[in-house]
Structures
1.
Amino acid sequence: MLVVAASPRTRPAKSALSREAVVAAALAVVDEVGFEAASMRRVAAALDTGPASLYVYVADRRELMEAAQDLALAEVELPVAGGWRERLETLVARTVAELARHNDIAQAAVADVPLGPHALRIHEELLRLLREGGIPDAACAWAVDFLGQYVSAVALEQAAWHRAQRAIADPEKATVEAMGADFVARIDGVYAGLDAAEFPTIVALRPLLTAGGGDERDAWKLRVIVDGLLAQGPTPG
């Protein structure tokens, strides 16, 4: 049987490249292989093109990853119900959840200030809510940076948890409850073997150190941040 190779005329036409397509492909690659492994070459391969083609739309990998991180925030809805504090906490939680859905894309914001349109929309609302709560302007300016660090850290932690969950073959062991119990047992096993004379405080607080779920702890951390902002007297600087 004669096999005829596809010619440029018979081969399906590739979709036209655009900045939007390149950024969407980059986010999909991060979803699949993670932030560090999402190279320009991998993104280009996902688009069936060469790496050089991407530089028409982005200056370098850093710009591409920042744009992908911003795209991950596109679905964050600004809360409209409740008081300023409830809306602030809801907005932070929604931002964390959207970033955590996309593997470790939050790494793109760890050492830089997100300046994409979706990030700016969220920052604008965070600043507005902080001012609505009576927090001084200078404290608001620093607080939004602090909240950004909180969002990135919690999103990365949640993303790591999701990756671990997907890696477990046994469905019964992949539940949040089973994973949580295994996590606590592993840590508590280490604490149980500590010498009370060398680590008296850890031993004394052992039951508390593993109490509470991840969501409960994250909510508590955010409350502490907001409480601290409300307790501020003079503005920093």
2.
Amino acid sequence: MATAGASAEVGVEGLTAGASLLSRPADEFENDPSVEAMWAMKAYEHAEIYFNILCSVDPKLLKLTPHDDMIYKTFREEFPDLKVDVVVEDEMKSPEGKSKWRPFCEKFKNVVEDYSFGTLLRLDCQGEYSEKNSILVSRIQFYAIELARNKEGLNDTVRTNFRPKRLAKNQ
């Protein structure tokens, strides 16, 4: 999952233009492949940074948002038995899963900035981000699951099994 090829393909001018485009309302766009590529690159950059932090810091000490405690409490009230060590994509993205997640997500609409942004989530918390171990979820779903993993000790082995990676120069 490298962004270097996509960055080179879009070019500096395209990335600069894309940065200003990404701040505009989504309803102004149709399915523009260049905008989708920029969103994918942004999601990947977020994933790289987050994973490097997990490799460097005790996950129990991480603060992802100013609302971590509320997100975690609400998540565990609404999803008390959801296993977060290995996420099953079908459970999240099935019609039944979506009907459970949608009300949860909407509770944070005016609380968590960019709550609906597409964000990469590792399916198995024991692994790193890869094409097979990542799915796209909303930012609030990412926060809910990663906060649970951090607070419940499921991300503890990341620091012992992985080292931070050098970030691409185009970031």
3.
Amino acid sequence: MTRAALITGISGGIGAALGQAFRAAGYRVIGTGRQRAGDDICDAFVEADLNAMAEDDAALARFAATVRDALEGAQLYALVNNAAAQILAPVEGLSMDAWRRTMNVNLTAPFRLVQTFLPELEAARGCVINIGSVHAQATKPEFAAYATSKAALHGLTRALAVDLGARVRVTCLAPAAISTPMLMAGFEGREAAFQELEACHPLNRIGAPEEAAQAAVFLASPGAAFATGTTFYLDGGVLSRLHDPV
């Protein structure tokens, strides 16, 4: 039977690479997002507002029914919780609406999707891959909401793995800076700043979306069959390096 992967946030830089990599690995890819993805990225696209679904049972039920129809007989094997909200603000300027949206999209929606699709994932002896972040361990000013949500997602990964045991594996992939179109646009005309970012990583470069995607495909593969509750840091060594003045 064909295996399927449900990938949230498919339209972003990492999401698009995830869709292409899972398709290349033989999966039927169901992509979700608020902006439609191309046919080269997923086999079926389901529009989704994760912020709304985190709080609205009816919206979540409608989404789940559409996803199940889109499977077209394939077996849901992998749920990849990739979508994320990153709202930057200093503590005194962070609104409660921004805080709630961040937690809804980055933490509550992934948990609710696991609950919703647990019967299919368990039947397939499948896996959940949460896309975390190095910000769960080390962060920067104005990232309070994002960093907190990702730290909680890493914790959720461990808790789900313990609860679900051999029924469904749960892992987390935590990238550092990745050369997505959004990140690169932010450095347009700022070559020195981009070189400084690269130099923070012992590998002297940032990661590529394809590298993150291949790591996720590995975590879903039989080669990672003994991995659950763990976080794989795809960080170019940045978390291993002190940044004290020389």
